Structures are given as C-alpha cells and as structure tokens.
Amino acid sequence: MTEPRIVTTGPVFMERIDEDAPIFGREDYKMRIDLLVERLDRESLDFAVVYGDIGCFANIEYFTGYDPRYEQALMVLDAEGQVTLVVGGEGWGYSFKVPIDVNRILYQNFSPQGQSRDKLVPLSEVFRRCGMNHASRIGLIGYKYFEEHHCRNPEQRHDVPSYIVEELYEVADKAQIVNFTRVMTNPYDGIRVVVRTAKEIAHYEYISSLASSYVFNMLKAMKPGMTEREVSAKAEADGTPIGMFPVVVFGSQNMSLVFPSPGPRRLRLGEVAGLCQVLRGGSVTRYGAAAYDRNSYSNELEGTLEELLMPFFQSNCLWYESVRIGADCGEIYRNVINMLCAGGELDVYLNAGHNTGQDEWVNSPFRMDSDVLIPNGYYLQSDLVGMMKDPVRLAVMEDGVILADSSLRAELASRYPQTAARIEKRRRFIMDFVGIGISEDLLPMSNLNCVYFPFMLDTTQIFSMK
After folding, report:
1. What is the pLDDT of residues 362-375, one digit of tens each?
2. Are both 307 and 447 inside the same structural domain?
3. Residue-range definition of the domain harbouring residue 397
4. Strands, DSSP E only, in 38-179?
C-alpha cells in the first residue's frame, strides 16, 4: 500500500441534514420484541428479565423506547410476548412515552435514595405478579455475559445488582436463572449487533452525522490559547442524548488519561489534542496534532507525522477496504494490527473496531482468534487507535459504518432517499478523493468517515491515498 499524501480540499464531505431523525413506533418495537420471544423459545425459557439504569440503558430502550435515565428499571418479557415495565417513582411518568402496550409496576426501591417508599412491595412479589414461580426458567439480561475462560459457571454469573438477583432466587430455582445477556450482544448473532430495517439505518445516520458536525464545529473553532471547555462549547450541541461524556483533551499528560472531560487547560500550538462526541446511536472521534502544518509541530512531536499518523491512516484504510459482508473479523484484525505495528514503534490501544449501537461499545468481533464472519446489517465502529509513548500520543479516527446487502440498500433508497443520497456522496468522496476502495455494501454513517486531518488546526488539509 502506498503512503498517504496530504491534499487540500474544501468541506465537501459535510452534508447538511434538513429532515429530523425517524421516530420508532409500535411496529418497530413489536418486531424487536418478537426477536426476543423467538430466542426464549429457542432456549426453552419462560421469561426474560432485562436490567437497565442510567448507564446501561440500551437493552430496555431497544425494546420499548424507554431509557431509565433517572434510576434503575426492569423489563420483564414472558414467552407470549407480554411486556412489563418495573420502574421507580422518577421513571413512572416518563414510562408513558412507550408506544406499545405494557404492564407497569411501581417498585420504589428503584427510586433515588431518600424518596418515598410508602407503596413499597417486595421485588419478589413483583416477579410473582409477572407470572413467575419456582418452576420458571428465566434468562437474566444485564450488560455483560461471561465465557468459560472468564470464570467458573459463567451462565450463573450476573452483573445485575445483587439485591435484584437475590429477589429472583426467592421466586425461582437458582439453577433455572441463567445469564442471557449474550442473546443481545454476542458478536455472532446478538439481537442488537445488526440493523434490520432502513429506518434503523436512517436513524443511525442522522445521529452519526450530528456527532460529526459537533466534532467539525470544534475543529474549525479550535485555536491555540483556548481552553478545553471553550472548545467544547463550540460543538454547538443541541441536547440530543449522549452515550458517553464529551471529550476535549489537550497535551500528552491529559491524553494519558485517554477520556477526560474538558477542563481549564489551554491549547498550546503543536501539541497533541483529542475531540470526541458520542451520541446515543453514533460516535465520532479525532485525536492527532494541534498544528497548522509540519513546521508548527512542537519539538516533542518531532517525527509524529511520519512515525504515527501516516502508518495509522494506512492501517485504517486497510480496515475500510477489508470490512464487507462475509469478511473474517479475525483475519481483518491480524492484517490491520500487523500493518500498524510493522515498524515496531507503535502500540495498539484497544483493538481494530467494535460493534456499536445506541450505546457506544456493544461488543467486538475483532480479535486475534475471532471466527466471526460479518453478517448483513452489522453496525460497526472503526476504532483503531495508534499510540506512541514518551510523550503519550494517540491517533484516533472513529466513525460508524453499516454493512448492508442490495435488498437493504434498495429499501433505504426507496424509503429514505435523502439519507441514501448522503451516504452515496460520502462513498464517492471516500473512493474518488480519499482513494480507499470500499465495498459496495459498506455504508458510511458519519460526514467524517475516512477524513483525517494531519494538522487539526487546518481543516482544508486531509490525508489521501490517491
């Protein structure tokens, strides 16, 4: 593969979005619930109990549209498809945003500390009201599942709060309660690792485009002397729910923390800098050098352009050229990591990409020994992070892609022509200007896919393989 060169371009990759994100309704959630009912039947389970809280919101939201943003919550699903939401006092009113028919049960121990418990009933009684008994076979869905080499008896290990698990044990046989989280997030056929409809693609594209506009707004405004907080304010965020705290980080010492929140530190010309915006459904990140050109790199970043940024971009190009329906994730990992580390100067932080969704990190199929073959509808996030130490320097170019076959692409073009047109414009830019030969089934979600600025203070210059 040839070395990247630096080319001048206008912001032709920044597409304005004039329509709102599509809204998920009753039929969308019913389809998703049916998927979980089918898995219950396949595994001979009677109930699924899905846990959620302010950080682990995505599983309940996926099935109902309700995110437990104030407190903890449970969704109980029986084998017939009946949904029960168990919420605290703060979440009770918000739960009526759910567009499907659900039973609601107030459980005040889910309410914040110090709020009323005047109507408190035991959680075990709540489970009995949902139809559970000693003979019930229950799949408990938290946020992590465990494998044989992780711990003993992985199916009996749960990351759900112990007081909830203990109350389940009072109702059903402990041996009949299994960790069922893998059904949601395993990288082979997890329910949430793929998109199935054009509406889902349009939703993620809207969110990812919004995240990329936040990052680009900050890049255009960032100047030496500005504080991290001042740059963060230039994102012009509109209140769309976030999936992770925003990151603006200046300098090697702060960058060693990887994901600190914006603070009072002022940007110095030529040092490392990082910007990250994670919304619920899309993430965009750029870490690199806060310079205008080669001559404005600081002394401590001498050699960074050739030794870190160029091989990092080349390795990302290989990732984009390799990711397609049917591709072997283990092979992609090995090839990309071998290219990035070929010179021996670079370390790899994390891996070569991961599954994403409403929450930024769902799982990852990219491991040395992975045998995952990319399926239709896979929603992935490019997340190859190059690192050099002494001083700490990170190179990050993080955006989402969806792999869609001809049928799914045709549905998108028919139902959401503006979304399809933006995606196609990005594809042409990536292939014709950036010079990366991507598969026809790869749909770039962000306005910044494959756009990397070797000089973060000059957004007219980007890397190209042409």
Report:
1. 999 999 999 999 99
2. yes
3. 5-16+192-464
4. 47-52, 73-78, 83-87, 103-106, 138-141, 177-179
